[in-house]
Structures are given as structure tokens and as C-alpha cells.
Amino acid sequence: MTRGKQKIEAQRKNAERNQKSKGSQLEARAAAFKINCPICKVQLANHNQLVDHYGSKHPKEKPPNDSG
């Protein structure tokens, strides 16, 4: 069991650790979704998902080439 300064430091470290895990994940989501469908503006993570999206949502259109 810790006392005094060690206890205060442990509480501060735990508070910092817990604070980082909470909150909005919009920044992480924006970083993960890098490809947008030019037709309907849906955000997709990679080119394979874009090809699948075109196959199901825009079957008459041809998916754009993978430029990355």
C-alpha cells in the first residue's frame, strides 16, 4: 500500500491513463477512412471495400483505379 507522494503520483498517472481512453473517436475514425465514393460520398477504409461498394450500390458504374 502506498502513502503520501507515491499515492498522489499513482492517482495522477491513473487519471491521465483513464482520460486518454475516454472521449470521442472521431479523429481515429477519420484517419482510418481514407477513401470516399465519388458518387454517394460514403467513407471507406480501403480500395477493396470501394470495389465491393461499387458492385453492390453502383453496379452500372466502373470503380476508379487504385491510385495509392
Entry keywords:
two-stranded antiparallel ribbon; 6% strand; 68 residues; single chain; mainly alpha; 3 helices
Summarize the topology.
Blueprint: H1 5-21, H2 26-32, E1 35-36, E2 43-44, H3 47-57
Antiparallel strand pairs: 1-2
Structure write-up:
Residues 35-63 form the C2H2-type domain. It holds the Pfam family zf-met. Keywords: Cytoplasm, Metal-binding, Nucleus, Zinc, Zinc-finger. Residues 1-19 have a biased composition (Basic and acidic residues). Strands 1-2 form a two-stranded antiparallel sheet. It contains three helices and two strands. It is 51% helix and 6% strand. A hairpin with a 6-residue loop joins strand 1 (35-36) and strand 2. It has a domain at 25-68. It is mostly helical. It is rod-shaped, with a radius of gyration of 22 Å. It has helices spanning 5-21, 26-32, 47-57, and strands at residues 35-36, 43-44.
